């Protein structure tokens, strides 16, 4: 006969009560921190979790008159329509290329900026350089795109200089082959300085005595960066990379849409702009919801995959 262990219900109740008591004691002790956390938690629930209810639209033939629950069930019809549409390959690859190349080229730049800023010893100079690097982050996407159209127009200053070499202006904002690089480079210029803040803050915690000791042992600047600075920010680099890779399909809609022209559409049409056009402009809400949900599922899969790989390569340190 197998041995069975009987659990005393009273003992289990006592343990649950003591556990609940410890939780309440912790809340009472740190109540002010929970009060500070409450607004952010409430806003996250309202604007991030409650709207998930609307994802049901992707599986229905949604009618505004019938409402979400009253609309007829469509199953995977809208997903099949998108996957079999002639535009799927172009839209999906445009989104993937723009996101992938943006991640590859933009990810190292904030790290390099932080490492260079960390070598600036004069506080006044360092603050002025940081102000210069952080300022573009506060320029709106509309203004950035307006600047691009002005500077890169056939009669703009960039083409004015290039005509000395090419003898004719380049149609930067019209030809599809230029769209992707203009988008990525302008993104780096706008966001790299601001993204370097987290690395600068981490490097500020490095003990200067480590650099002094390494210098006395004969280590040059690159060796000190490799063996002291980079190991310090490596966990942050891993987390930032995982989050960036998890959102690789969620590139900014506003900038891509504003940079679109009828001539560069073969390279500028991405999932975000496509969802806007078929959803808000054409009124096909169910189909656009299915496309958006498809995009979100890919992001989740990428997030989990990249996190698993990074944990294997980074001694178990990842997002979770």
TrEMBL record:
Belongs to the binding-protein-dependent transport system permease family. It is found in: Cell membrane. This is ABC transporter permease. Residues 92-306 form the ABC transmembrane type-1 domain. SUPFAM superfamilies: MetI-like. The keyword Transmembrane helix applies. CDD domains: TM_PBP2. It is a multi-pass membrane protein. The lineage of its organism: Bacteria, Bacillati, Bacillota, Bacilli, Bacillales. The chain crosses the membrane at residues 31-50, 98-117, 129-152, 181-202, 233-253, 285-310. InterPro entries: MetI-like, MetI-like_sf, UgpAE/MalFG_permease. PROSITE patterns: ABC_TM1. Gene3D superfamilies: MetI-like. Keywords: Cell membrane, Membrane, Transmembrane, Transmembrane helix, Transport.
